[in-house]
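From the shared-data thread, chain only:
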Amino acid sequence: MGSETFLEVILAIFLPPVGVFLRYGLGIEFWIDLLLTILGLGFTKETSLPVPVHLLADLHRKIVSGGVPKANHGSVETRKPIHSFLRATDLKEKGFTFNPSPTESLKDVSIACYFFYARIHLPVWADSAHTKVLLKNLVAYELSPNSPTEMEVTSYINLMKLLIDGAEDVKELRERRVLRNMLSCDEEAAAVFTGIDTHGVNNPRLYGDVKEQIDAHCDLSCSTAISDLRGRLLHLLLPPCCLGFRRLSSTTQHIHLRIDRS
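Structure, as tokens:
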């Protein structure tokens, strides 16, 4: 007599209604597990509780993924690569423009280079009173032992520290709708990134291609001259009223932002 047949006999003796339940769909495995539990022998199948998700891990996943499939960027290196490209305001003089990326993922950074100019696409980011503390905690999470991340937040901060060196750079990114400043002034928004120590850790393969293309475009001897020529052509071709409207719209946007803060 097999073990399951023996247990069926025991169930039929001590729990007569079992036969009715077996007839109407409750399998013998359920009753065997119940009997073993009553006898204190535990379940026949191993059960395990799901591992709880850390709050920082869940937040990291949300701001990094953003609809962009995960890619293997290789191992993370602590040696910081050398990139000579300039801050946002200086890049503007070289013919660069900044545009919002189609997704909010921190990995969604790209560049499109043309002969006369280049477009850098960056994910939209909002600076608030809690941003600096949040980023510091995420950097600590990425630098922790056995971290499953690819240093996305740390690498993004390093990229922004290259682009932002002062209030003028924040103003440029804000007017291009890449950076939303919810602080009292642009100086405080600049300090959010410049005041975070990433300890020299970076994933050079995450934004490596973009940085190399920026360097290559900046090395063009004619890039600054072409940018100046393009600006002069805009002033000649566009009526003065259009240029004044562009300045007015940028100023109005900043005024509305200050009203919302109050």
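The longest strand covers residues 96-100.
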